[in-house]
Amino acid sequence: MATRTPRVLLRALNTLTGIAAAFILLLQTGCSSVFFYPDNVTYVTPDRLNLEYEDVFLNTPDGETLHGWWLPATSEPRGSVYFLHGNAQNISSHIMNVAWLPERRYNVFLIDYRGYGRSTGAPDIEGTLHDAETGLRWLVEQPEVKSQPLFLLGQSLGGALGTALASEWVKRGQQPPLDGVILDGTFNGFRAIAREKLGEFWLTWPLQVPLSLTITDEYEPYERIGDISPVPVMVIHSVRDGIIPFHHGEQLYEAAEEPKKFLRTDTGHGSTFMIPGYKEEVLGFMGQP
């Protein structure tokens, strides 16, 4: 693969130097660069959380190698959860969002997109969509997954990728079918959130429209979420989300078809599963009494 330009995080920059650097990079790479901020730091491994796990390495069709973790349920599994994380850091910093599920009898598989953690390459929207599909195709081939309910859980950027993946999975009649899709703190459109974030800074404000138009509009979550039906969808969004404003969750839920459920929360971005009651809501959605 050709070397790709490093990407920048969709987040507030609090120094003039940082804003200027981001501005220059946006001009060089186009606005899709604002969606990715990977690193290769290992923050925590599953064994430090007393979880059994297996390292999984997958080859993508375009020559990258993805790293993931398989976390088996601690007892007879009720099903499996495929987790797609947000835009920063890597799976070792996001694992706490799903570390509680094996004890609740769910297998979990989580991957790093290209350029994140121990995965090769550099991320872009098309590439990470391919990575998300590569991970799901590996997961459904595991014997312990085929006969059990299967759920997709996407958080923030991972929810946007998961929406596109799930809609295609349903439209193509892929097997095994998904039993539910859970979107936590997800934006309603790649272009929309990029425009909002660019509009927050004086240096990028004049270019928010032309730069956002450099992003492909083929995978907009608000356009794809309706295609997930008849698979149930749960949209989770916090009224205190300082990264992805609450109206994104409301608009995604409105665009979804039945069956659907909306969980209004009151935590910071990416902090849903710190609250036991929210965990129980998600388990209820997945059919656990």
UniProtKB/TrEMBL annotation:
Q: Which UniProt keywords apply?
A: Hydrolase
GO terms for MF = hydrolase activity
Source domain of life is Bacteria
The record's annotation in SUPFAM superfamilies points to: alpha/beta-Hydrolases
Specify the Serine aminopeptidase S33 domain's residue ranges: 76-191
Is-annotated flag, keyword Acetylation?
Answer: no
| PANTHER family the UniProt entry points to | ALPHA/BETA HYDROLASE DOMAIN-CONTAINING PROTEIN (PTHR12277), PROTEIN ABHD13 (PTHR12277:SF81)
This chain belongs to which protein, by name? Alpha/beta hydrolase
Annotated organism of origin: Marinobacter panjinensis
